[in-house]
Amino acid sequence: MRIAVVGTGYVGLVTGTCFAEVGIDVTCIDIDQQKIENLKKGILPIYEPGLEEMVLRNTQKERLSFSTDLATSIQGCDAAFIAVGTPPGEDGSADLKYVLAVARAIGQHMSDYLVVVTKSTVPVGTAQKVRQAIEEELAARSANLAFDVASNPEFLKEGAAIEDFLKPDRIVVGVASEKAEEVMQKLYKPFLMNGHPLIFMDIPSAEMTKYAANAMLATKISFMNDIANLCEIMGADVNMVRRGIGSDARIGNKFIYPGIGYGGSCFPKDVKALIRTANENGYQMRVLKSVEEVNEHQKSVLFNKIMNHFQGNLAGKTFAVWGLSFKPKTDDMREAPSLVIIKKLLEQGAQVKAYDPVAMKEAQHLLGDTIQYGKDEYEALIDADALLLVTEWPEFRSPNFTVAGKLMKEKVVFDGRNIYEAKDLAEKGFTYYGIGVKQPVSELKATV
Ligand code: UDX
């Protein structure tokens, strides 16, 4: 089989490479010449564990190629996947201009039956717009060609995207014809070895599934953050409560970790877009509006604790920040809570010395020399008034706190991800603040 994947961002590159990995002939297409030149040399635009090796292997086997030429690349393909960006417009709705431009280009250049698959996260009704755009282009050149559209949302987690693609929990495909179903069934057969389902449904339901999945996950996080804040006020420990509820299979023990708010390229954008879509159609997503509100508040929780500890005076203080990316195993800084916290610290006249195992370059683009960057996690601690654990990279999980304590000016830890034990740190002479755990200060209400 042969496919084209348009857009070599995160989703497109992982999708194209994983299809090539199972023996499908894949061309990844992008309008960015530089990006394509780099990919041909094995230089990737993103960091994702295992992806670079997989790109190289499949390029060498000539199952994976890169091109800027959509017109030629879609010839002879069974399917073309649209995986270009859908950035949020000013009003929070997903901007479809890139998706529709690709649809038009496909309509201008296709010469045989093709399934055109939307892979980008797009609002309900987009596949219909894609169909229209292609029809218009075919009509403009009086081409009487059959084609189908399909919706195939991705559920890839950054940092685990390859694993998620190769061994998916489920694959969701929205189709409107048997022929399209057949093509998609053939393409995905190699990924169904683990017995998990390929679920076919109508196109609007597939489009909605993606938003519903992300909105549900964001809801779990905001719910737990709310509970964590209340735990603190009431003298309960959310780590215990989490374990207490997580063993109920109906609730589940995943995605109930409180922290400093969800970030990344998906949750904030998709929650906003779903609220917006509902609103445009005369319906109010009451739960999701609160999910968003809680998340905004949560980004300030760690900062409020810092202010409380230092009695509102951060001027001249130095803070070591461990972790900058929005989550571990990625260099993605989009909507990273670290950015909000750092901005607030700088506004108070504090200094920040940060370290992240992978995202330092990306952070430098955004923060420049407004902060300092440590060579490693220990160097970032030198003369710090406190350590802020912002992203729970595995290498931060078990540091040598005896060494850390000697490097720091004050032995204070603000743990934004609850990865340390208050008791362990107290034994080493540290003052510890977590999220939703018992706090060492009396004015609890003021901190959450
Ligand atoms: C998410 C979805 O998981 C994925 O299925 C979808 O395709 C894209 O969006 P991703 O953005 O890579 O993937 O990150 P994810 O691991 O889901 O984490 C999102 C955010 O939630 C992060 O900021 C993370 O720190 C936060 N989070 C996650 C919590 O605060 N607590 C949790 O228990 C889990």
Molecular structure report:
By secondary structure, the protein is an alpha/beta fold. The chain has 2 domains: 2-201, NAD(P)-binding Rossmann-like Domain (Rossmann fold), CATH 3.40.50; 235-447, NAD(P)-binding Rossmann-like Domain (Rossmann fold), CATH 3.40.50. Helices cover 42% and strands 13% of the residues. It contains 16 helices and 14 strands. Strands 3-2-1-4-5-6 form a 6-stranded parallel β-sheet, sandwiched between helices. Strand 7 (171-174), helix 8 and strand 8 (198-201) form a beta-alpha-beta unit. Helix 9 packs across helix 11 (267-280). The protein is elongated and about 75 Å long. It starts with a strand and ends in a 15-residue tail after the last strand. Residues 441-446 have low confidence and may be disordered. Uridine-5'-diphosphate-xylopyranose (UDX) binds next to helix 9. Uridine-5'-diphosphate-xylopyranose binds at residues 154-158, 214, 217, 221, 255-257, 259, 262-264, 266-267, 326-327.
Radius of gyration from CA coordinates: 24 Å
- Tell me the name of the CATH homologous superfamily of the largest domain: NAD(P)-binding Rossmann-like Domain
Beta-strand level of the residues, as a percent range? Answer: 5-15%
Terminal CA distance reads 55 Å
Count up the helices.
16
The CATH architecture classification of the largest domain is 3-Layer(aba) Sandwich
Q: What molecules are bound to this protein?
A: uridine-5'-diphosphate-xylopyranose
Helical content class? 40-55%
Task: Quote the CATH topology of the largest domain.
Answer: Rossmann fold
Low-confidence stretches: 441-446
Q: Characterize the overall form.
A: elongated
What spatial order of strands do you see in the largest sheet? Answer: 3-2-1-4-5-6
| Element pattern in H and E | EHEHHEHEHEHEHEHEHHHHEHEHEEHEHE
Mean pLDDT: 95
Major sheet details: 6 strands, parallel
Q: Tell me the number of structural domains.
A: 2
